Amino acid sequence: MTEPGALSQKDRFMSEKKQKNKKAESAAEDTLKDITALCKRRGFVYPGSEIYGGLSNTFDYGPYGIELLRNLKNEWWKSFVNNRSDVVGLDSSIMLHPAVWTASGHVGSFNDPMVDCKGCRSRFRADHLIEETLKIETNNMDLKDMQKIFSEKSADIACPTCGKKGDYTEIRQFNLMFQTKMGSTSDNDVTVYLRPETAQGIFINFKNITDTCRVKIPFGVAQIGKSFRNEIIARQFIFRTREFEQMEMEFFCEPGSQKEWFDHWVAFCMDWLNSIGINKENVRLRYHDAEELSFYSENTADIEFKFPFGWGELWGIASRTDYDLKKHAEHSKKNLEYNDQENNKKFIPYVVEPALGLNRLMLAVLSDAYFVENEGTKEQRTVLKLHPKLSPVKAGIFPLQKKDGLSEIAMDIYKKLSVHFPVDYDASGSIGKRYYRQDELGTPFCITVDYDTKEDGTVTVRNRDTTEQTRVKIEELDVYLFKNLETL
Ligand code: GAP
Which residue of 36, 258, 337, 439 could cross-link 350, Cys pair, CB 3.0 to 4.6 Å? Predict the structure, then answer.
């Protein structure tokens, strides 16, 4: 029997489990905080408009962040466009004719269910509040179902901001598109939207591309560019922001072949993540069930990544049928059929779309590469074990001392290597501190010029991942780095 006031075995077990969960949650939060702090400290990502007190959920990418973003874009473009004979590129406008968004369904249905706390006026996604506080899955619910839950159970839903329970407005649909005005006078200005996805710019150029480029179905059109969504809850650092960049590709194929292409692109995207060094155990595939599918999709798979706060969507691969081209043909009154001259037939192609967020990919890459080694010891170091092709800097070059001609030799090496790849020259602080800085940037190699260099023309090259050091002749440095950047 349990003593009065003492915890039963079950209670103790539950309390320990809760504590463990809390610990895991706070450790995860700490990791995200640590990555956010590293990003600021090392010039990857800064909070937006900081000197004016900040503008919530906006971010600026610093000197090393922009290099990482560019490397990611280049790798994606190489694999999805340059190395494939069946994909071409496009750069469409951010502002498109407003009719585009009516045709695509964004004006009518690109909404999130929103509810306000009457106590503190904070605004939340109703579906998120239900899921997080009541632990009820909302994927299959419409607005009415959610309102019913709020009417019956809002006394159990505490406002995440002020803690008040049961005091919410009705749930309303909130369109996520940003609007702006185009035109020079208030009489003739037109309301336009900042695009919420790059995809529609591709669909409305389908005819241009088939008319002007020698493309034959099956073929894809790829685009990288900014998208904007007025997310109600924008959070988790750069995971969900209101301004972000997408890398999307619409692959046009013959009706009936879409399943084969869907499977092809799912496998291709998974392999690509692997090729940029993302660990397989941090990635998983999740297929949408029928209720979760978007109105335009007959099949969708999310590639999810294990972010510090849990599994989250990284890449959506959707089989969009002929929905978009049909809608644009209907609304624009233009014929968007593909003319298959070889087989003497015309048809509206089906589309498979892999859609990836660049900034979210950057967070995945940083989380995947982030390690704290020898924690709590004198040798503790934080290191980004980035794939060398993603590293913003390929080598750090240090003179052991600024005097005795060492910095001149180091600068000479810097000038020669910078012709081939981005390198950093650093002469300040101890060598240990300089290593530490480069480890946090994910720099694969550090080169130190010391007094032996003057004697034998060799330098020390330190490997980021093993911390092992080796002597290399100055004139062989470029070849050494080329070879080892490939294999690290
Ligand atoms: N054209 C289809 C489309 O846009 P989506 O699932 O809404 O599909 C594709 O977006 C990808 O864009 C997501 O998997 C995610 O990586 C990224 N993304 C979407 N909304 C985002 C946001 N608010 N902030 C950052 N990335 C976002």
Answer: 258
User: How far is ligand 1, taken at its centre, from the CA of residue 19, in Å?
Assistant: 34
Residue type, 276: I
Q: Is 313 in the pocket of ligand 1 (CB under 6 A)?
A: yes
For 202-255, the pLDDT digits (tens) are: 999 999 999 999 899 999 999 999 999 998 876 799 999 999 999 999 999 999
* Contact 357 CB / ligand 1 (< 6 Å): yes
Ligand 1 geometric centre to CA of 331 (Å) = 25
Strands 458-463 and 445-449: antiparallel
| pLDDT value at 363 more than 50 | yes
What is the Å distance from ligand 1's center to 245 Cα?
9
Rounded to the nearest angstrom, the distance between the alpha carbon of 476 and the centre of ligand 1 is 45
DSSP-assigned states of every residue in 423-476: EEE--SS-HHHHHHHHHHHT-SEEEEE-HHHHHHSEEEEEETTT--EEEEEGGG
pTM of the model: 0.89
Percent of the chain at pLDDT > 90 equals 80
What 3-state DSSP class applies to 2?
coil
Nearest CA to ligand 1 atom 7: 197
Q: Report the percentage of the chain scoring pLDDT > 70.
A: 93
pLDDT of residue 3: 46
Residue nearest to ligand 1 atom 4, measured at CA = 197
